[in-house]
């Protein structure tokens, strides 16, 4: 900041620019931002619109205006694979639900210990935990695959869910630690004086207060698991066990560029839950990235 | 400090109980596999016969593996082009979205949404259509009398479409930048304005230094993230990394060796090389940070 004081020579303050010019500027800015919004969202909007067009029209219509509603794509797409698409939605929902529960329980427990308990080696273990955030899944996947295949877990949801029960999504542990650290310590101490042990302080004092962090974790886990392709592709090879991303991908291979309409239709179906999660949880998403981003 | 601080024993027992799942995960899911893949990296293993130690054979194989070198080139190009572009877009837009401006929440949401959708198979499917020979992009070019090409089927341009896709997801770092910009006291800008500093000087002398820790954070995170990109290249190329290996990301090559050819020993060695590359980039970033990241405290 000293830099600033030295380099800038003082000049007399000029009168504020005329309000008209300022309004013009603001209008231009909104026009620019609006245009950019349109460009950014255009591909997605166009996919939604195209999913409601007959196949032969999709390649001729870059616009967003529909001549009529063609819902056949949805019916065709829904039944294009071995099982109706609903089957894959249910599979994805099971995996997502398991991962959310796993993350909520295991990460909050670990976070409580790191944030509030005084134990030997806390600093070291905390550093180890942070280190695991950066670990690419690719260094783990081969031995994990070997271990899970020896357990007979290939083509079950266990390889996807069990790690979450063991707090391996360190990102969320970190997020929760940050959150708990922000809670007043007096509350724990009051509960302690009243004779509560750690399990009770955790369950009855800390957990209810950390609902925002739990909500952030839920939404991120939902979106990341729903989108996750790499591990689901590796562990789920039986079409009966396919989740949405794996099913969608096999759809692409099966119908390559013959039936974009139904492929778009199922793509839209697969994005719908993400979009809903975004609408409902926007506040927590934005807060979640902002707090972990800075602290 | 609590009044009970003196009599309270350390919480070792409780802490280790609370950390039990995490410790189990660390040993079984994280650290164990990391160590195991290191050992497997010195073996030949196809899942059927037991692993056979082959010394540094995997390392010499990597040195002579032209496809691997090509995959490294593709991945470096992708990371080094798409991350700076993405962060520049994120910072630029974050600066445009002034405090308290009208429609801020709307723009923020609209720009953020793609970063939630971007890693999905559905968007990769869409990209395949958009940049296909008869895709949306070419239809727009046609409107202006231009003829495009099959952007995804042409080895010269296939990777660019993936770079565009990554830049498209600038919303997540943008939200982090927005939060960071809000931390800079308005008073600094007012003082600078009084001193006659123009917008550009304010940006260079106030915004950039005060935001540099966050730029650094985003840079580290997005580089790590970009090195691990997989889904988009996989779906767009139908799992091949084509055309002519032009979208052969490192992770895709690793997947092919490990889970197509079941060459688990070599795949483990590849995984460790990736870990080393990512660690080296992160270390390099931290080293360079000393020269340009400004800490207020």
TrEMBL record, chain A:
Entry membrane topology: Multi-pass membrane protein
Pfam families the UniProt entry points to: BPD_transp_1 (PF00528)
Keywords: Cell membrane, Membrane, Transmembrane, Transmembrane helix, Transport
Domain ABC transmembrane type-1: 89-281
Intracellular or extracellular location(s): Cell membrane
TM regions (residue ranges): 31-49, 88-112, 124-148, 160-180, 201-226, 260-280
Matching PANTHER family: ABC TRANSPORTER PERMEASE PROTEIN MG189-RELATED-RELATED (PTHR43744), ABC TRANSPORTER PERMEASE PROTEIN YESQ-RELATED (PTHR43744:SF6)
Family classification: Belongs to the binding-protein-dependent transport system permease family.
Protein name: Carbohydrate ABC transporter permease
Record organism: Actinoplanes flavus
Automatic annotation (TrEMBL), chain B:
Species this protein is from: Actinoplanes flavus
Subcellular location field: Cell membrane
Residues in ABC transmembrane type-1 domain copies: 72-285
Source superkingdom: Bacteria
CDD domains: TM_PBP2
Similarity comment: Belongs to the binding-protein-dependent transport system permease family.
UniProt keywords, alphabetically: Cell membrane, Membrane, Transmembrane, Transmembrane helix, Transport
Record's bilayer topology term: Multi-pass membrane protein
Annotated TM spans: 16-42, 76-97, 109-130, 158-181, 208-227, 267-288
Listed InterPro entries: ABC_transporter_permease (IPR051393), MetI-like (IPR000515), MetI-like_sf (IPR035906)
The name this protein goes by in its record: Sugar ABC transporter permease
Record bears the keyword Transmembrane helix: yes
């Amino acid at each position: 900041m000293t830099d600033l004081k030295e380099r800038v020579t003082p000049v007399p303050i000029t009168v504020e620019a005329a309000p008209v010019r300022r309004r013009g500027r603001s209008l231009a800015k909104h026009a620019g931002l609006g245009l950019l919004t349109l460009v950014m969202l255009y591909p997605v909007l166009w996919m939604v619109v195209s999913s409601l067009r007959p196949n032969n029209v999709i390649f001729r219509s870059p616009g967003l205006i529909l001549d009529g509603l063609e819902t056949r794509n949805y019916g065709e797409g829904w039944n294009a694979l071995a099982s109706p698409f609903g089957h894959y939605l249910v599979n994805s929902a099971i995996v997502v639900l398991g991962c959310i529960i796993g993350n909520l329980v295991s990460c909050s427990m670990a976070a409580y210990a790191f944030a509030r308990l005084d134990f030997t080696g806390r600093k070291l273990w905390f550093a180890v935990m942070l280190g695991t955030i950066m670990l690419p899944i690719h260094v783990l996947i081969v031995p994990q695959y070997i271990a899970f295949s020896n357990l007979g877990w290939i083509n079950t949801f266990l390889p996807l869910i069990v790690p979450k029960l063991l707090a391996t999504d360190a990102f969320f542990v970190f997020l929760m630690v940050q959150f708990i650290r922000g809670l007043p310590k007096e509350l724990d101490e009051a509960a302690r004086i009243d004779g509560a042990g750690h399990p009770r302080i955790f369950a009855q004092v800390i957990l209810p207060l950390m609902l925002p962090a739990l909500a952030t974790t839920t939404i991120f886990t939902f979106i990341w698991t729903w989108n996750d392709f790499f591990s689901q592709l590796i562990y789920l090879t039986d079409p009966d066990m396919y989740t949405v991303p794996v099913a969608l991908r096999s759809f692409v291979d099966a119908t390559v560029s013959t039936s974009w309409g139904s492929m778009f239709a199922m793509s839209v179906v697969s994005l719908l839950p993400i979009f809903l999660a975004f609408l409902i949880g926007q506040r927590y998403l934005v807060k979640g990235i902002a707090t972990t981003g800075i602290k | 400090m609590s009044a009970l601080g003196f009599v309270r024993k350390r919480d070792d027992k409780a802490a280790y109980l609370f950390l039990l799942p995490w410790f189990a995960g660390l040993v079984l899911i994280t650290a164990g596999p990391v160590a195991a893949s290191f050992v497997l990296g010195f073996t030949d293993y196809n899942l059927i016969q037991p692993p056979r130690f082959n010394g540094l054979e995997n390392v010499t194989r990597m040195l002579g593996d032209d496809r691997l070198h090509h995959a490294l080139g593709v991945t470096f190009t992708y990371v080094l082009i798409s991350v700076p572009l993405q962060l520049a877009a994120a910072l630029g837009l974050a600066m445009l979205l002034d405090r308290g401006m009208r429609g801020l929440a709307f723009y923020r949401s609209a720009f953020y949404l793609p970063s939630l959708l971007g890693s999905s198979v559905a968007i990769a499917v869409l990209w395949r259509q958009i940049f296909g020979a008869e895709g949306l992009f070419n239809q727009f070019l046609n409107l202006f009398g231009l003829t495009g090409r099959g952007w995804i089927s042409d080895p010269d341009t296939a990777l660019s479409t993936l770079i565009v896709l990554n830049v498209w997801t600038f919303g997540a770092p943008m939200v982090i930048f927005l939060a960071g910009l809000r931390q800079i006291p308005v008073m600094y800008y007012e003082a600078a304005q009084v001193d006659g500093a123009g917008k550009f000087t304010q940006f260079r002398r106030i915004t950039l230094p005060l935001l540099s820790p966050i730029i650094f954070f985003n840079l580290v995170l997005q580089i790590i993230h970009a090195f691990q990109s997989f889904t988009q290249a996989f779906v767009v190329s139908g799992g091949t990394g084509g055309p002519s290996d032009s979208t052969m990301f490192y992770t895709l090559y690793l997947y092919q060796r490990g889970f197509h050819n079941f060459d688990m020993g070599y795949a483990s060695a590849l995984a460790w090389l990736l870990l080393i590359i990512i660690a080296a980039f992160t270390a390099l970033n931290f080293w360079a940070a000393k020269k340009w990241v400004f800490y207020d405290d």
